[in-house]
């Protein structure tokens, strides 16, 4: 029954019962005969999740328990929840799911096509490490031909800090670096066990004194939109507005779209095409 406000304890209990009852015991190698109710028994779910039967009973009876993130993860696995169902369960438990530390190394095919379809606006796709996964030709003309770089160097943070051409590209480089480091710290906090990301941070801190200083300042900022001015070697100064979007089906990937901030910049971009 729908009410004006959701009782999350009751909804958590109802959701756990519904997911348990839809499971087929045969999928778990369990006998399905002589069962008075559909699905798995509570004791079977408890064993799969590594918790006590009493704990499962109290959860399903909405007795005010708030399971930890580890227990929610275990229940999600035991109940064979989909990705969306798992996120829903974490939301009901008011817990934050553990981030996936295995970063995508390829953009989703639909995002690759979207980046191409966004032409003539420069666009690219990155993962949580800011590795560049896909881009269109307009992006390479404004910034750099990423195909000329070895894959480990196709990273927006590394390019901004350590690539000789990109270092000189931004008119207000100090602000761009400051925002980038603050955004990177937020990504690092969400993926603390990502060894590759930690290696990137260590390399940047060693190779760039400004990065090391900004990292120690502990600033955190998710910079999803704004404006950057680049000093293009052929087109002169171009003011760009950018927007960063997170696809619902691929939340670990970021779609970045650039557009001219004024008429003169649009003319300059048209000339590059």
Automatic annotation (TrEMBL):
Domain HTH cro/C1-type: residue ranges: 39-86
Highest rank taxon of the organism: Bacteria
Pfam families per the UniProt record, alphabetical: HTH_31, MLTR_LBD
InterPro entries recorded: Cro/C1-type_HTH, Lambda_DNA-bd_dom_sf, MLTR_LBD
Gene3D superfamilies xref list: 3.30.450.180, lambda repressor-like DNA-binding domains
PANTHER family: BLL4672 PROTEIN, BLL4672 PROTEIN-RELATED
Protein name, UniProt field: Helix-turn-helix transcriptional regulator
Taxonomic lineage of the native organism: Bacteria, Bacillati, Actinomycetota, Actinomycetes, Pseudonocardiales
């Amino acid at each position: 029954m729908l009410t004006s406000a959701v009782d999350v304890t009751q909804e958590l209990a109802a959701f756990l019962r519904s997911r348990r009852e839809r499971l087929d015991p045969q999928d778990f190698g369990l006998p399905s005969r002589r069962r008075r109710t559909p699905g798995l028994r509570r004791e079977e779910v408890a064993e799969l999740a590594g918790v006590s039967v009493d704990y499962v009973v109290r959860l399903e009876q909405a007795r005010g328990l708030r399971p930890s993130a580890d227990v929610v993860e275990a229940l999600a696995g035991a109940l064979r929840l989909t990705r969306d169902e798992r996120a829903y369960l974490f939301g009901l438990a008011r817990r934050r799911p553990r981030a996936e530390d295995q970063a995508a190394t390829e953009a989703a095919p639909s995002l690759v096509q979207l980046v191409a379809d966004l032409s003539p606006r420069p666009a690219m796709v990155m993962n949580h490490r800011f590795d560049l996964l896909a881009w269109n030709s307009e992006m390479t003309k404004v910034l750099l031909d990423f195909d000329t770089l070895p894959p480990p160097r196709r990273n927006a943070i590394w390019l901004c800090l350590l690539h000789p051409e990109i270092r000189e590209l931004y008119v207000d480089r100090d602000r761009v670096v400051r925002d980038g480091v603050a955004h990177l710290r937020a990504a690092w906090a969400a993926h603390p066990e990502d060894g590759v990301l930690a290696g990137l941070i260590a390399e940047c801190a060693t190779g760039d004194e400004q990065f090391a200083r900004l990292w120690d300042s502990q600033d955190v900022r998710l910079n999803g939109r704004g404006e950057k001015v680049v000093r293009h070697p052929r087109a002169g100064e171009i003011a760009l507005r950018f927007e960063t979007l997170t696809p619902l089906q691929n939340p670990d990937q970021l779609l970045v779209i650039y557009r001219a901030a004024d008429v003169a910049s649009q003319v300059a971009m048209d000339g590059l095409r």
